[in-house]
Each structure stands twice: as structure tokens, then as C-alpha cells.
Amino acid sequence: GANSICIKDMAGLLTPYGTYDLVKALKETVKIPIQLHSHYTSGLASMVLLKGIEAGVDVIDTAMSPLAMGTSHPATESMVAALKGTEYDTGLDLKALTVVRDFFAPLRQKYLDSGLLDPKMLGVDANTLLYQVPGGMLSNLNSQLKQAGKEDKLEEVLAEVPRVRKDSGYPPLVTPTSQIVGTQAVFNVIMGERYKMVTKEFKDLVAGKYGATPCEIDPDFRKKIVGDEPIIDCRPADLLNDSIDQFKDEIKEYYEQEEDVLSYAQFGQVAVKFFEKRRDAKYGLDGKHDDIVNKVHPV
Fold first, then answer.
1. How far apart are CA 286 and CA 277, in angstroms?
2. pLDDT at residue 292, as a whole number
């Protein structure tokens, strides 16, 4: 029933010839489109995409050059140029892409100047092949350590990630479990003692609330992390009550469309803040200076 298959190489671990064999085998087996997604963290992604194309992949993921490379994707313009004049020519106009590039170039500098984009995340780190940490996860780890004033601990955290992943049953390092494992690794390092502090999300992961992990979790470790809380060995969603009507009632003052209920169900108070900003913009209110008690709403 799938419409397409995406090979998502979030850690940049695919190799060119391994990719060729994988795509070729898929194309010989299924008729639906195959998409290839790889990050540049290990420095292999451009070669990976090229060999995937030669093997018959239908779609590749890229990023405009100012925001490409590093923990991002290969550059769109470079891939278009590499394929120009071949049987794989994209038909995209490099001159037109330059207009798009010029739009993003100052944004890149803005993010660099503000510290939102760390220069270390723009280069190649071959250690990725050892630590197997996805690009987005690597950026988040660096950001967390920066906020804690522990940037010098990045290598220790990267070495700790595989250990935390092993302890927790080898969950796939893709959102949200990548962030759960990564954050726990950060705590393990900066606290100076493994699992001295455990996040709620990591505890839920070990307890089975995110579903079964690929490998079994050691019972003693599970007991250490979860304590006497019940372990879930079924599909976690089967334990949820139908709360749509309740959610809709809780946000009735902000409700504008069905999607609002889904936003609230997933993001809670973060969604409420968005609803408030949307309302303030719609009615020209100054939300920062609301006086709820006296029902005063500055405009």
C-alpha cells in the first residue's frame, strides 16, 4: 500500500557502492518510486547520491548551497551541475537557482552571527562513521552543550551516545528517539555519573511507552531506570483514551480549524502559545501586556 520508499540516511553512514547495491535491489523488486536522503556529516553524501542515481533512484534530497553540507545535505546546485548534459539531467536552470541561493546566503550569515548556526556543524566529521550520530542530532548535542558551557565535552558525549543506545535496546536514532538518547548522553557526561539524572522521556523509552525496541533491554537496567513503574509490552497507543473531544473543549477559545486540535494534542502548551500569537495578530492585540485578572487587552 506504500506510494514510495525513502532511504533515510540521517547519520550519513551510507557508502557509495553500498547505496548502489541497495537501490538496484529495490528497483528490481518494487515498482514504486525510490527516494534517497543522506546527510553530509561524514563527507560521503554527494557520492552516495550519484551512485544512487546511477542505480535508478527516482528522487534525491538536497539543500541550497548556503545551508548545505555539514550536518545538512549535498548542495542542490552542485548536483544539478554534476548531472547536466547526462541522461540524468534534472532540467533545472543553474542561473535561476542562483537567485534562490542569493536569498539564502544572508540568512546563513545571520544564523552564523547569532550563534544559531555553529561553524563546526558545517564541516565534515569522519568520526560520524564511528559514532553513527545523525546530523540533526549532532547539531542539537552541540547546542545543548553550548548552553551548559560544556562545549569541550562534545567528543565525550559522542562516545557516550552508542553506549546509551545499547543500554536502551538500540532504538533508531531518528526523531524523537535520537533526541531522547542524545539528551541522556549529555546528562551522563556533564553530571559525571551515568544515569545519575534521567529524563522523563528516557524513562518512558525504557518503559516501552515509545513501543518495542529492536533489541531487548536488560531487566536490571530497566529496573534501575524505571523503578516499580509498569512496563508496557503492547502497542502503547492502545492504552490511550479517545481524547479528541476533550482537547477540542480545552482550546475552544482558540479553535479555528480541525488541525488546531491535532497541534494541541501533540504539543500542548507550545501549541497554546502559537494560538495566542495567532489570535493577537488577528485582532491587533498586545499579548505581552495582557492583564487577564482585570480583563485588559492592550492593542
1. 9
2. 60
Three-state secondary structure along 131-172? HCCCHHHHHHHHHHHHHCCCHHHHHHHHHHHHHHHHHCCCCC
pLDDT at 215: 95
161 to 184, 190, 235, 237: CA distances (angstroms): 8, 13, 26, 27
Residues paired with 6 in a beta bridge: 35
- Angle at CA of residue 193, ends 188 and 194, nearest 5°: 50
Pairing of strands 5-9, 34-38: parallel
- Extended beta strands in the chain, E state: 5-9, 34-38, 59-60
Q: In the block, which residue shows the cell 509498569?
A: 230
The whole-angstrom separation of Cα 216 and Cα 241 is: 28
How far is 131 from 162, CA to CA, in rounded Å? 7
Measured CA to CA, the distance from residue 106 to residue 100 in angstroms comes to 11
Q: Which three cell numbers stand for residue 27?
A: 528497483
Cell of 7: 532511504
Q: Which amino acid is at 94?
A: L
List, for the chain, all residue ranges whose pLDDT scores fall below the cut of 70. Answer: 135, 287-299
Q: In terms of DSSP bridges, do strands 59-60 and 34-38 run parallel, antiparallel, or are they unpaired?
A: parallel
Are the C-beta atoms of residues 171 and 213 closer than 8 Å to each other? yes
Alpha-carbon distances of 247 from 231, 238, 274, rounded to whole Å: 27, 18, 16
**35 touches 60 (CB < 8 A):** yes
Supply φ then ψ for residue 254, to 5 degrees.
Answer: -110, -10
| Locus of grid cell 556543524 | 121
Number of H helices, E strands in the chain: 13, 3
pLDDT of residue 115: 80
In this prediction, residue 129 carries a pLDDT of 78
Q: Are 16 and 47 in contact (CB under 8 A)?
A: yes
